[in-house]
Task: inverse folding
């Protein structure tokens, strides 16, 4: 970046009026038109098409993707109609389960990668040590791995004939949604689980692992530049003023990186929710392991284009919301890195 | 990692320890598995696997379509960034915002919507071979990269040089070629390379539109999946080792792209100084 | 925030290391099946659960399904997909699981009819009015015809398609399976066959080569192909499972027609219990019950209603109008069973690979 002072953008045409040539307005408008057409064709059209497909049979059918009510009087239905109703209801239930699965996976993966991201950014930006560049490159590694390969490596690792196959196949793990309070009678740990699952690969645990792998770098990547630009002065000041490590972290560091952190979390969540290739390889095509993108593929393959688009519209809405949130956070983040740039005293932060 | 500790801040051991631990658990061990499992093939088998006709043509399609998409995004991305930064037109902010959509939209959603568009708009299929369809989808997938790397540089760009060149009588093409592009180049090339790297590994959206014909329209990830599920042959060698080898080569390609990228970045910075 | 982080960390460690597994008696069953049986097993599962509940004091097992290309599914089971029963497209895929050490040898004689509760065959689906006048296999190699079929490497249905085409060109012997006597004779001929000239048949190879030149898309599973044909509108003919063709015709009313060729193959999709998994999970009784249900009359009725050919001749005769009798040849008699056919045609470097190397 050569020039330190950004050109004010208020000059609408980039150049002073007297320097513009005749015809440049024509050039401008044609270039603008090309860009508008390009973005409309490649972004707006596909996204609008999702919603068009979702509502192509009306709102009723849209809702039926997720919930099929039982009519008040089922006695008038023929046998075939009853069968169809039962089928539709079980399909809608599967779709709801897929939504739940996606939410659960994100709920496990995002906090894990967030804690990691904070720890990694802390170590990398606040201290000097050898091998730092290597560490950063390693953190970036999952970005350059094809999703299919990301899934494949977990099959190699945890599959029945994989490297940790024996151990992984017989691993019992508790199903979080079956948790109940059992008190302290049984052991010191008061929560029991009604349901345990066995094995890793082709279970929701593998889905979570694969998702964690593909979303691994996001939080760390969005924190490192921000924290690097902030330096260590504020934390040092806080410590000099007698703050304990934890106080320093929660009262100085965390507020200063808040927006950058949220930004990373948003990106991480968006990817965790939408990942297809990696989870497809480790899901075993079983209904029970379907996340929303996998469920979309299944519905699509059951000839039900409209319902596939209905579910897709949910994800598309999430991505549009992500985008809006991102713009908002971007602005906050920019403010924050200006406000908290090095040199400002940290006294206000430790009271 | 030898430590040169010069900070009074706490938590170094804890944070670095946890970072390395979690990194090893989630990334290094799994990727190590990939290398170990390809190691079960002899060098000769590995070589014949990854140079098989079908494998080569899958690499050609994956790399070729990705390159085409990256090139188109290189040109269009530059143009989009230019127009978004320099010109004012109604709806500019909206267009600026939606550029990121391909990042956020799940690949399966992109896949079905493009498949549907190709199916319902038959004129799009007029030249409809797989190369063409795959490339169109990959343009979508890689679209934000160039724009988002070039845009900040253009925004920070001081128009004085341009004005000087213009007052010296340079035409717009010359100005772009001689004045603007050289400055944009490092950011631009890194955007193109990022788009390319992303496209090479893309799976979710492409499978909905590509034909999966061995030797013709099969992309590398599709081939990996096919090999992966091959029944064991008479020697009991399963497809996993083959799939793994192909995956490893794909990984190496992506890594070398990023390496070249970093080298360019490094060189251009040194040049600046 | 502080407290929340602490709680998360503590509970994670505690959960993973201290809480003791107290497993409830598992009443879940996973049926790993091939691509085009989704609708069939949706219905079977519902009927089976209801039936099981009446016989077992209201207990309702949780039956789960998994569907994808047959070969892919076999691989997944070997890799650790914990199937209790597999209901795949062809015996070779179950043999692959046997090789993986999960199913005992001799599975094919555990249940009657070679452990295939139903048969099916391969037919054509064409667009309404049959604009390209496709009547038989021979029409598929005309230059202006685009044929849709899945990839034999991953799809079981595709392998049946391939062998059906090969068998037609090699003029192997067909039998009438609607007639019980003739069916028994055909089965006997299959067991006694010693020589299989069809393997090296030049006409077979030339025909299949020409056929695959007309194939623009090879999806990884049968369902993918049907979607390509029906939804994306590609191709003039879909070579497909009989049930898949009927289903597509029902889903897209008045858009397609089914064409029965002059001769086709008798497909026997087999079922088996995954011994190792059911013994570990204690689900053998349930799994056996499930497979037996497929052979019961209500099971056979659902099978026929979903356009598969039931073994129960009484049920079959009720659906005779929708499952017309055409001459069918068997893989045992013509190709000496799946192990041979798989190795010769579909393994890496086999005939299928050679065809594609030539076509390039």
Result:
């Amino acid at each position: 970046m050569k020039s330190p002072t950004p050109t004010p953008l208020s000059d609408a045409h980039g150049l002073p009026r007297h320097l513009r040539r005749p015809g440049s307005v024509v050039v401008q408008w044609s270039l603008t038109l090309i860009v508008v057409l390009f973005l409309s064709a490649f972004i707006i059209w596909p996204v609008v098409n999702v919603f068009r497909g979702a509502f192509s049979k009306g709102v009723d059918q849209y809702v039926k993707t997720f919930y099929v009510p039982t009519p008040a009087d089922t006695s008038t239905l023929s046998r075939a109609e009853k069968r169809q109703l039962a089928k539709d209801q079980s399909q809608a239930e599967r779709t709801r389960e897929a939504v739940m699965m996606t939410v659960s996976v994100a709920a496990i993966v995002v906090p894990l990668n967030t804690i990691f991201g904070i720890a990694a950014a802390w170590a990398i930006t606040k201290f000097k040590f050898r091998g730092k560049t290597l560490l950063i490159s390693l953190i970036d590694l999952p970005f350059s791995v094809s999703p299919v390969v990301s899934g494949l490596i977990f099959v190699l690792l945890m599959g029945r004939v994989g490297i940790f196959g024996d151990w992984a196949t017989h691993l019992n793990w508790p199903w979080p949604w079956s948790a109940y309070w059992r008190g302290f009678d049984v052991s010191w740990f008061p929560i029991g689980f009604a349901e345990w699952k066995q094995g890793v690969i082709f279970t929701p645990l593998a889905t979570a692992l694969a998702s964690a792998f593909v979303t691994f770098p996001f939080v760390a990547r969005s924190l490192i530049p921000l924290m690097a630009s902030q330096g260590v002065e504020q934390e040092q000041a806080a410590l000099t003023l007698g703050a304990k490590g934890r106080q320093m972290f929660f009262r100085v560091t965390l507020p200063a990186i808040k927006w950058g952190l949220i930004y990373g979390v948003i990106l991480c969540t968006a990817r965790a929710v939408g990942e297809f290739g990696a989870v497809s390889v480790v899901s075993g095509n079983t209904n029970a392991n379907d996340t929303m993108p996998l469920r979309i593929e299944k519905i699509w393959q059951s000839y039900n284009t409209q319902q596939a688009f209905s579910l897709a519209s949910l994800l598309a809405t999430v991505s549009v919301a992500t985008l809006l949130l991102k713009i908002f956070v971007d602005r906050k983040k920019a403010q924050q890195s200006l406000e908290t740039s090095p040199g400002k005293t940290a006294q206000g932060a430790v009271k | 990692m030898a430590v040169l500790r010069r900070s009074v801040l706490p938590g170094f051991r804890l944070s670095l320890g946890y970072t390395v631990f979690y990194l090893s658990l989630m990334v290094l061990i799994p990727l190590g598995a990939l290398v170990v499992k390809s190691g079960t093939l002899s060098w000769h088998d590995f070589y014949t696997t990854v140079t098989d006709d079908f494998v080569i043509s899958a690499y050609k399609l994956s790399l070729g379509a990705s390159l085409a998409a990256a090139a188109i995004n290189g040109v269009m991305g530059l143009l989009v960034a230019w127009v978004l930064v320099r010109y004012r037109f109604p709806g500019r902010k909206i267009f600026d915002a939606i550029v990121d959509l391909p990042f956020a939209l799940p690949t399966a959603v992109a896949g079905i919507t493009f498949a549907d568009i190709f199916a319902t708009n038959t004129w799009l299929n007029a030249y409809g071979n797989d190369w063409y369809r795959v490339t169109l989808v990959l343009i979508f997938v890689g679209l934000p990269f160039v724009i988002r790397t070039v845009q900040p540089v253009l925004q920070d760009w001081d128009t004085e040089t341009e004005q000087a060149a213009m007052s010296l009588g340079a035409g717009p093409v010359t100005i772009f070629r001689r004045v603007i592009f050289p400055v944009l180049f490092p950011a631009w090339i890194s955007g193109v390379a990022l788009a390319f790297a992303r496209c090479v590994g893309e799976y979710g959206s492409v499978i909905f539109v590509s034909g999966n014909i061995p030797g013709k329209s099969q992309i590398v990830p599709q081939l990996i999946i096919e090999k992966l599920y091959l029944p064991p042959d008479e020697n009991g060698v399963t497809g996993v080792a083959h799939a793994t080898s192909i995956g490893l080569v794909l990984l190496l390609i992506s890594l070398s792209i990023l390496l070249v990228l970093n080298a360019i970045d490094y060189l251009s910075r040194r040049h600046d100084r | 925030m502080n407290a929340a982080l602490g709680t998360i960390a503590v509970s994670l460690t505690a959960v993973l290391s201290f809480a003791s597994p107290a497993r409830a008696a598992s009443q879940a069953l996973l049926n790993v099946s091939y691509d085009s049986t989704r609708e069939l097993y949706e219905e079977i599962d519902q009927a089976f659960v209801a039936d099981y509940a009446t016989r077992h004091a209201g207990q309702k097992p949780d039956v789960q399904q998994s569907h994808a290309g047959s070969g892919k599914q076999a691989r997944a089971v070997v890799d650790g997909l914990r199937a209790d029963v597999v209901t795949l497209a062809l015996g070779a895929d179950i043999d692959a699981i046997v090789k993986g050490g999960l199913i005992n040898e001799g599975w094919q004689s555990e249940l009657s009819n070679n452990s295939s509760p139903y048969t099916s065959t391969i037919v054509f689906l064409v667009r309404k009015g049959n604009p390209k006048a496709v009547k038989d296999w021979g029409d598929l190699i005309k230059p202006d015809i685009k044929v849709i079929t899945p990839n034999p490497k991953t799809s079981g249905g595709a392998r049946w398609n391939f062998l059906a085409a090969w068998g037609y060109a090699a003029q192997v012997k067909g039998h009438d399976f609607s007639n019980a006597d003739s069916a028994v004779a055909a089965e006997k001929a299959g067991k006694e066959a010693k020589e299989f000239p069809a393997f090296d048949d030049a006409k077979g190879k030339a025909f299949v080569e020409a056929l695959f030149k007309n194939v623009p898309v090879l999806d990884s599973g049968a369902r993918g192909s049907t979607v390509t044909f029906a939804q994306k509108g590609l191709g003039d003919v879909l070579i497909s499972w009989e049930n898949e063709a009927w289903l597509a015709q029902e889903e897209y009313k008045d858009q397609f027609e089914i064409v029965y060729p002059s001769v086709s193959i008798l497909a026997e999709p087999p079922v088996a219990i995954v011994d190792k998994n059911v013994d570990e999970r204690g689900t053998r009784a349930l799994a056996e019950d499930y497979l037996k249900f497929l052979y019961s009359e209500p099971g056979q009725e659902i099978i026929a209603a979903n356009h598969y050919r039931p073994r129960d001749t009484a049920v079959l005769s009720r659906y005779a109008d929708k499952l017309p009798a055409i001459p069918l040849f068997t893989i045992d008699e013509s190709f000496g069973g799946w192990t041979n056919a798989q190795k010769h045609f579909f393994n890496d470097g086999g005939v299928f690979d050679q065809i594609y190397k030539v076509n390039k």
User: Anything to note?
Assistant: The first helix of chain C runs from residue 2 to 17.
